[in-house]
Amino acid sequence: MTAPNFIALKNDLTPFSLKELKGKVVVISVMPSIDTPVCELQTIRFNREASEHGGINVVTISVDLPFALGKFCANKGIDSAVTISDHKDLDFGMKYGFVLEELRLLSRGIIVIDKDGVVKHVEYVQEVGNHPDYDKAIEIAKKLV
């Protein structure tokens, strides 16, 4: 399946489009809120993976406000992964099936997209308090680089 394009907000409130990463291997790390321990660890882990594996572009998305994501990144040294907010329209969440409608949050998961824009791996974590399979997603992404 071709990865649907979506629009979300960068930390500086400018629009982010998946099209910006056309031709690149992308790991989308999906989480409910940066203010939870699992989400914090997930963001830190994928930032580290992005810095260690230069050909992998990590996009972390939640419905947190862009200001909160920016503050978190500044405080935790998140500089390799891009953090974006889906709070405005839930465009990503609706197109990829991650919306927890009763809470207006995104569930936890991972998507890996190859250089041709094809989705190669999707993980929907059943319990939002559980970690995704980081190693599996990174291994798949490394093979695509």
TrEMBL record:
<keyword id="KW-1015">Disulfide bond</keyword>
<dbReference type="InterPro" id="IPR002065">
    <property type="entry name" value="TPX"/>
</dbReference>
<comment type="function">
    <text>Thiol-specific peroxidase that catalyzes the reduction of hydrogen peroxide and organic hydroperoxides to water and alcohols, respectively. Plays a role in cell protection against oxidative stress by detoxifying peroxides and as sensor of hydrogen peroxide-mediated signaling events.</text>
</comment>
<keyword id="KW-0049">Antioxidant</keyword>
<keyword id="KW-0560">Oxidoreductase</keyword>
<feature type="domain" description="Thioredoxin">
    <location>
        <begin position="1"/>
        <end position="143"/>
    </location>
</feature>
<dbReference type="Pfam" id="PF08534">
    <property type="entry name" value="Redoxin"/>
</dbReference>
<dbReference type="GO" id="GO:0008379">
    <property type="term" value="F:thioredoxin peroxidase activity"/>
</dbReference>
<dbReference type="InterPro" id="IPR050455">
    <property type="entry name" value="Tpx_Peroxidase_subfamily"/>
</dbReference>
<dbReference type="InterPro" id="IPR013766">
    <property type="entry name" value="Thioredoxin_domain"/>
</dbReference>
<dbReference type="InterPro" id="IPR036249">
    <property type="entry name" value="Thioredoxin-like_sf"/>
</dbReference>
<comment type="similarity">
    <text>Belongs to the peroxiredoxin family. Prx5 subfamily.</text>
</comment>
<keyword id="KW-0575">Peroxidase</keyword>
<dbReference type="InterPro" id="IPR018219">
    <property type="entry name" value="Tpx_CS"/>
</dbReference>
<dbReference type="InterPro" id="IPR013740">
    <property type="entry name" value="Redoxin"/>
</dbReference>
<protein>
    <recommendedName>
        <fullName>Peroxiredoxin-5, mitochondrial</fullName>
    </recommendedName>
</protein>
<keyword id="KW-0676">Redox-active center</keyword>
